[in-house]
Every structure is written in C-alpha cells, then in structure tokens.
Specification:
This protein folds into two domains: about 5-155 and about 330-340, Aminopeptidase, CATH 3.40.630; about 165-310, Aminopeptidase (3-Layer(aba) Sandwich), CATH 3.40.630. About 35% of the residues lie in helices and about 25% in strands. The protein has helices at about 15-20, 30-45, 95-100, 100-115, 165-170, 175-190, 205-225, 235-245, 295-305, 340-365, 365-375, and strands at about 5-10, 50, 50-55, 60-65, 65-70, 75-80, 90, 120-130, 130, 140-145, 155-160, 195-200, 250-260, 260-270, 275-285, 310-315, 330-340. An eleven-stranded mixed sheet has the order 2-5-6-8-17-11-16-15-14-13-12, sandwiched between helices. The chain has a four-stranded antiparallel sheet with strand order 1-3-4-7. Strand 14 (about 260-270) and strand 15 (about 275-285) form a beta hairpin. The model has no long low-confidence stretch (mean pLDDT about 90).
Length: about 375
C-alpha cells in the first residue's frame, strides 16, 4: 500500500475519466455510460449519492463505483447499479489485483472506509470471483480483490456457455432430445410464416425493439404476480437510455425474433470484450405460447453470437431451470455485509434472518410455494 492514495468522487460525471481509465479489468456494468445512466434514473429516484472510490499512485489502480443509499433510515454503502446490474465489481489493473493477498485487501479496505462519507452498513452484492481482462492483458481472467475481504460469503453463481466455432458443435454437445424438440418448434413456427432474428441497427431500430419488449416483459411479470418494473418511470427511463448507450469495448445488442416481420420475442442485452450478455428477455403468449418463442430467441441469439466469433454467451445471474440445457460454466458470486454503527448492527441481524429463510425456501419446494402464496404471488412458471 506504500504510495497509494484514495480519493472519492461524489459525482458520477466527476469520475468519468477514472471510470474510463485504460487497461483495467472489469465489466461493462462498471463503465461510465452504464453508471451514469443508472444514476440519472434509478439512482436519482432513490436518492442514492455516489461515492466512487479511486485507488491510485502514479496511475489509476482500482475504481470502485460505490454509493450511499437511504433505506429504512439507514445509510447503506453499496455498488451503484441496483437491480439492473448483474455483476458488481471494481475496475482494477490486472497486475495490481494479482499482487494483492488477503491481508493487503483488508488493509486497503480500511483505507477506503476511512475516506468514505459516514454510513451505517455495507452491502456489496453479486460480486463475481473474477473479472474480464482488458484485451491487451490476454484471455486469463483477473481475480476480484473484494472477494478476499474477511467475512465475504458465497452467494450463488452466474452461468454461461463457452462458444465453439460452429453452431453444430454447440448443439452436438447438448441433450439430443432438447435439440430435436427445439428444431421441431422452429419448423412449426415456420409453417405460420418466415422466421428471422432481426438485430437492431441504429438508434431508431433499437427503440423499436424496446417498445415491443416492454409490454412483453410487463405481461410476464403480471402473470407471475411479480412487480411490473416498467410501470416505474425511472426503471423504464434507464432502459430507454441503455438503448441509446455508447459502450467502449462493446455495444448494446437489441434483437427480435419475428414471424412474417411480426416480433414474437425480443431481447435487449450487450456485447463486451468478446462476451454476449443475456439481460432483458420477453416473448408473446396466447397463440404463440405453444411455439416456446422464449426458447427459440435464445437459440437464435446463440447462433448469432457464434457467427460473430464471440467467446462466451453469458446467461448472467439466476438459477432458472431453462439455462441448464445450454450452460457449461459457473461463475461463483459473493457478497460482503458489514455493520458499522449500532443501528447498522440491528438491521444486519434482521436481514440475516430474512436471508436464511429465503435460502431455505430455495431448497424446499413447499416453503417456497407458501411464501409466494402469502405474498399473493402465483407459483413461478417455467420459461417457454
């Protein structure tokens, strides 16, 4: 830590140069465009105040896109990005990250905590074990220093599939019955009209994709008795901004599966450093349900990613059963929770009890069903 300084930006725009510092490992979710879009919409709506940490000496070594949110009277230190961000992680120089042992990470965290504004609790969620390296660093993934913090806990995993050089090789490694059923559904859909995956080119086409996707996703949430997030103006505003986003080392990817030019399933995600991210997916129901258009658009996106010579198709967080048919890799996720004040310690006890109940509900079907019933939510149906 000799020679290292810590500075904290209280504005996302003031942190732009550091968030875009060259040569750092990390994710698209930690780039300036993504953080700015979130802060201007969802962050502003919740009163989250940026506290973006920069660790530097002669150059930037690590950037942590943090903020302080107000929740139930608590000041909570967390990552900027909220529930639209799948991976929360620092941007970090690969050599710096690889040179940190657990003791160094703990010492660095104490320096960071001392520089931050007052807060009652720390909740760092969905932290991946490794980070995407910059292109000049090669293909070896970079360790995430924050998962070495004392008290870090495992918190599930994200899943992906390593893409071969042909679609035939991908399907050849999959369950034959699933592949045959998918092909059969394609044939049946083609009997209705010509089927095509249309990838949006340009801002107007991207907005068209989003306009069709919003009602599909809202309907799905209502069907499962979940919250319709698109009814929230700030949530809708984030995705409107995302559709226009310019992303260094990547791009926003919008597409629709169409039948005779009519969208029956749509997706908004991104491509970054050779990895395709499946983020927001929706499909029509009613007469289209029997064709499993959700499955078909994922299959079409996989084929498209292989044609673009991408290396990985990332299904991101979540343990939905439909992913089992495609994935071959798991990325461990972690969380770090720390109480700073007496009020924070009391809130931590309550949150721990709640998390234990949720974790048990994931393993016990009847308990999960009971919780959803008490909350007035229908059982979660499978993807089709």
């Amino acid at each position: 830590m000799r020679g290292v300084t810590i500075r904290v930006h209280r504005s996302v725009r003031d942190a732009e140069a550091d968030l875009e510092a060259p040569g750092l490992a990390g994710y698209a979710f930690g780039r300036f465009a993504w953080i700015e879009a979130w802060q201007d919409t969802l962050g502003a709506s919740t009163g989250t105040e940026p506290a973006i940490v920069v660790v530097a000496d002669a150059r930037v070594r690590m950037v942590l896109p943090l903020g302080i949110a107000r929740r139930n009277g608590l000041r909570v230190l967390e990552f900027l990005g909220g529930n639209v961000t799948d991976y929360n992680a620092p941007n970090v120089e690969p050599a710096f990250a690889r040179g940190l042992d657990a003791a160094s990470v703990q010492a660095l965290w104490q320096l960071i905590r001392a520089a931050l504004p007052p807060h009652d609790a720390v909740h760092l969620l969905r932290m991946p074990a490794t980070l995407d390296p910059p292109e000049e660093d090669g293909a070896e993934r970079v360790p995430n220093p924050l998962v070495s913090l004392p008290g870090v806990r495992a918190a599930g995993h994200a899943r992906s599939v390593t893409l071969p050089d042909s679609y035939a090789k991908l399907t050849g490694a999959m369950r034959p019955r699933f592949v045959a059923d998918t092909q059969r559904r394609y044939r049946r859909l083609n009997e209705v009209g010509p089927v095509a995956l249309v990838v949006a080119e340009g801002e107007a086409a991207m907005q068209d994709v989003l306009s069709g996707l919003k009602p599909m996703k809202s309907r799905r949430w209502r069907e499962t008795k979940a919250r319709d997030w698109f009814a929230t103006s700030a949530f809708a505003g984030f995705y409107d901004t995302m559709a226009r986003m310019r992303l260094p080392e990547g791009r926003i990817h919008g597409s629709s599966l169409t039948v005779s030019g009519i969208p029956v399933a749509s997706h908004l995600g991104l491509v970054y450093r050779g990895r395709f991210y499946l983020l927001l997916l929706g499909w029509e129901s009613d007469e289209w349900q029997r064709f499993s258009t959700g499955r078909l658009v994922v299959d079409a996106l996989l084929k498209n990613a292989i044609e673009e010579s991408l290396r990985v198709f990332d299904f991101t967080v979540g343990d939905e059963a439909y992913k089992d048919e495609w994935v071959d890799t798991q990325l461990p996720l972690f969380r770090f929770d720390s109480a700073v004040t007496a009020r924070g310690r009391l809130a931590s006890i309550v949150a721990d009890l709640r998390d234990r109940l949720r974790a048990r509900a994931k393993r016990v079907t009847w308990l999960r069903g009971l919780i959803r019933k008490l909350a007035g939510r229908a059982p979660r149906p499978p993807i089709r």
